[in-house]
Amino acid sequence: MDASVTGNAYDLDETFHDEMYGADGAPREQCRLLDDALQALPGSELALIQDRVRRSFAEEGISFTVYGDEEAQERIIPVDCIPRILTAEEWQQIETGLTQRIDALNRFIGDVYGEARIVADGVIPADLVRGCPQYRIEMRGMRVPHDTWVAVCGTDIVRTSDGFMVLEDNLRVPSGVSYMLANRAAVKSNLRRLYRSYHVRDIGHYGEVLRDTLASLAPEQSDDPCIVLLTPGVFNSAFYEHMFLAQEIGASLVEGRDLVFDNGYVFMRTTRGLRKVDVIYRRIDDDFIDPLVFRPDSLLGVPGLMNACKRGNVTLANAPGTGVADDKSVYAFVPDMIRYYLGEEPVLSNVQTFLCRRPEDLEYTLDNLENLVVKRVGESGGYGMLVGPHATPEEREAYARGIRDDPADFISQPVLPLSRAPCLIGEHLEPRHVDLRPFVLRGRNTRIVPGAFCRVALVKGSLVVNSSQGGGGKDLWVLGS
Amino acid sequence: MLARSAQGLYWMSRYLERSEFIARLLELQTRALVDRPLSEIHFGWRRIYGSLGTSPPAGDLEADHSDDYALADSFTLAGDLTFEASNPSSMRSCFAAGRENARQMRHCISSGMWTNLNLAWLDIKDLDIQDIWAREPEAFYAGMARTIKTFDGFAAATMYRDEGYQFLRLGTFIERIQLTTALVTTHCRVPEGAGDHEWTSLLRACQALDAFERVHGVERKPERILALVITDPLLQGSLLGSLTSTASCLDALGTEAGSPETAAAARRLAGRMTARVVYDWPDSSDRLSLLDEITREARDLHGLVTGAWFEYAIGEEEA
Question: B112: nearest CA in chain A?
Fold first, then answer.
C-alpha cells in the first residue's frame, strides 16, 4: 500500500467507500490484480500510459463542444487510465434493479397519459403529475409500440457505504454512451495484459443492441426499417456522440431541415428524392421537436412531426413527454411506482428526498440547509442547485427566500458521501469521487450492455462529476461470473 | 443517402483539393526563392493569387496595384496564403473547412480517412509562418500535399463504393477542373510572358513533369506542355483527365436524383465540356476564350450538381 504509485498520498477516509481498497488499506479481492499491476509500474510509466490514453482521444477527435468567448471549441474530455472494477454480483444487482425500474417507469408514463390509475389510487398526487412542466398534455391517449415510452435511459448511480443508489433517471435524451465505448477502447489497448487477465465483459455490441431496440419499435415490422438519428446539429455539445452513434447503428444523421412532413408521414431528403422514415432516435429536447406543437420558434425540429407520431406512422425514441417521470419531485415516488405496478420491492434504493411542497419537509429543509443539497425541480445538469455545506450563510439565506416563495419548486437531499476510486494525478494515485451511468435499452424487451460511463470529479474533494463542469471519465470493468 | 451528407462529402473533397493545390504551388514557390531571379518569383506569386482568384494583402503596401507583388515580401505573402485565418483561400483555411466537413460526415467516410486528416490537423492548427519559415518551408508544403494525397489513397482503398464515394470524387474533379483552368489561364495571361523556367514550373504545378519527360524528353516546348496538361487523356490531372473522371462519376450516379432533369443536364454539360477540350482545343485560334468558356461551364456544372442531388425543390416548393 505504500509502494511507489500509491505512496502516502493515497488517503483512505472512512467516510467514503473506496472502490479499490478496503478500510485496512488492502486491495479488495477483485482489485488485487489491478493493484499488483499498478505497484509493479513506476509512476512515470503510468503517466506515460495516461498520456497515451488521453492523446488517443485527441487523435480520434473524441470531443464535446463548449462555448467560449469567441467561438465554439472542440474540447477533449479528460479520461483517467485506471479502470474501476465491478464484480459480477455487483453488476447483477444493478442490472436487476435497472430492469425493474425502467419497467415501472414505462408503465407509469403510459398510465399518466392514459387512465392515470396511479393518481386515482392516491399513490402519487395529481397536481404533482399534471403540474409538472414536462407533462405533455398533447400525449394524452397516445399509444406507443410495445408500450415503450423510454427506449434509451441513462441512469446515474452512486455508491455510498450503504450500497448503490439511484441518483437520477435520465429519461429524455441521455448522453455519454460514446464515452463509455471510447474509454474502453483507449484503456483496453493501453493495459492489454491486465485487461486480458481480468475477463472483462464486452460492451462493443452496444450499437447492435441499440439498432435492434430501435428497429423493434418501427411502426410496421420490416427487416430494414429506415432509422435516423435526429441531432440539433454540429454546435450541440454532444455532436460527437450523435455522429458516433449514427455510424454504429448505420443510421443517417439528420437535422430538422433534412426531414419533411407530408400527408401524415415523415420523409428525409436523400440524393434520390424523399424516403419514408420509420424510427427517429431523437437527440433533441421535446420543446424543439415540432414547432407546430411545442415551441413555435424552434428551427431544430420538423413541423408536423407530432402529427405523424400520433398517427403511429413514425416512432420517436424516446417518446415526447417522458420527462414527466424524471422530474425531481416525481423521482421521489419511483419506489412506490415499483411497488404499485410490479408488486415488488425496489432492488436499487432512492436517495432520501424531501419535497418542499410538504410542509414538514419544507420545515426540515429550511432548518438543515447547511447539511443538504437543494435542487430546483425543473432544472438539470447541476444548474440552480445549492450545496449547503459549500455555501456561505448569505447564499443559504438568499436561497431560503427562494424556497419560501415557491416551495413546490424545490426538493432537498442529504449530501451524499459518494464513493471514491483511485485516479492517476501526476505520477501518483489519489482518490476522487465517482458515479456511474449505465445505459438501459428497451424495445421489445430490456437489455443492458454490461458497462457504464463512469464519471469522475477530477478536482480534489469535489463531488461534481458533470463533464460540463470539469468532470472526467474512467473505464468501468464488469467482471464475468 | 441523405442529401446533406452527400453535399458534405462533395465540399470536403473540394476544399482538400484546393488545399493541396495551394500547398503544391507554395512548395514550388519556396523552392524558387532559394535561387531564382526576382522576376520569376514575382511571376510565381502572381500566378498563385491569379489561380485562386484573390489578391495579396494590401494595407501596408504603399505602391500601386501592379507593384504589390514586388513590394510585399515573400514571407508576408506565404503567411497570407498558408496560415492566415481571415483569408478563406489560405491553405489552412481550406484544410480546416475540409476537415470540418469530414468531422461532420465521419459516419460516411472510413476511419482511416478521418484519422489521417485529423492527425495532420492537430499538427498544423497552431502553427504560424514563423514556425516553418526558418527551416525548409518547402518540406512542410510537400508534407501537406502528401497528407492529402494519402487521404485520397485511403479513400480509394477503403471507402465503400456507394454514391457517397461518387460525390467525394465529383468534388475533387470539379475543383480540379476549376483550378487547372484558372492556373493555365493565369499562366498564359501574365503580361511579361512565361520563360522556360516558368513553363517547367507549370508542369510541376500540374504534377506532369515526370510524364512530360517520359513522353517528350527534355525539350520543353510550350505547345507540347499545354497539350499535355489540357488534352492528354493519360495524365490523371490533365483537364481532359478531370473531365473524363467527372463524366464517369455522373454516369455512376445516373439520373436517379432529387431532380432527374437537372442530373441529366449535368451529364450533358460534362459531355459538352469534354468535347470542347477534345475537338475544339487543338485547332482553336483563341484558347484563352476557350478557357474562359470552360471556366464558366465548370461553375454551371457545380450549380447543376447542387440542384440535382443536394438542394432540389420538393412538392409545393416547385410550384
Answer: A60
